[in-house]
Specification:
Shape: globular
Number of strands: 9
Low-confidence stretches: 1-7, 74-89
Strand content: 5-15%
Largest sheet: 5 strands, antiparallel
Radius of gyration: 22 Å
Amino acid sequence: MNDSVGSNNVIKIPIDKLVLGMFIVAIDRQQDKVDVLNPGQIKHSDAIVKLIKNNITTVWVDIERSSDSCGLKATKSTGLNPLVRKAISSREDKRIYAKKLLTEAKSLIQKVLSETYEGKAIEVGPFEAVADQMIELILDDADAFKCISALRTKDAYLMEHSINVAFLLVTFGHHLNLDTDLLRQMAVGGIVHDVGKIQLDNNILHKPGKLTPDEFEHMKLHQVYAMAIMDDTQGLSQISKDVCLMHHEKIDGRGYPKGLEGDDIPLHGRMSCIVDIFDALTATRCYKEAMSPAAAFKILISLTPFHLDQKLVYEFIRCIGIYPVGSLVLLSNEQVGIVWQAKGRDALHPIVKCFYSQKNKRYSEVTMIDLLKSEVYIERGVSPSSLDIDPSSFY
């Protein structure tokens, strides 16, 4: 076999290009090809981590037996090299891949939360693998990930919030030109940033109403629990720990758990404060409806300069955009749609996937409107609750 192709369907790829859905038939061990006893698709990130821990640097993958979404199967329209992970060719392929990645991440977080509740230590490796996949997808085309991350459920808030905080930290960090290693550490911190909540009273954690002073003090304990969990976690960087333990600190020193003030909160810590609040505001909870991004931005601004870093807040708004991909907008023709694609466009002229007529108060035929080529424009951002509609099936 040569270095690229072993047959019409089998290719040799480096371990850092391995993603979920690829079908492994053999591994390279000390430069010799060794067939695996149980060939099959990679279903979980921990399988990749295990290969890395076993010093496997390259693997043999069957293209045809790999999933369509893993990026190996080049389409006629693109003719992309299947060895390149960015061969996930179309927007739909990327969206499907993003959805699978989110599903995998949610399962991983659920597993870790259960194990943490039982007193087991967190393994960092699987989270780093998820973070790497998230970073590569975002750097390639964040729009696909944004659309999927906007699709949320009240019952899975803790898991989805953790994933979205990681996603927002990577997106924001990339906007600030931070290096990839720092993005990875921030993403891992975002994924585990609420792990301490597993120790809270469930009735208080999910209370559908305002907390009493005593209940709020109990909620604040999740950071105390998190400190103990972080101390027991091997291989977790200080930056990841900071993201976890600083997202409730305030610039004026009135935050918790340590009451850090001003420059005592490093950049990644101040970023975590912003993205944690933004994602919480734009999520539907048992006690509140989701805000539009524009409404959430107003609250972020109102929290400066005493709670949040003012300069960073305005930079975050520039990064996300007033009408981010995945958000709902009302157009001037009274159509409601999802901001579907914005890459390479200004904030006011995305492609919008329309599915509802505000004028007729009913769902309409799905149409894609390119605002660069239309006289229609965005009137304002809206939330699903304000229109009494469920957009989930259109993502």
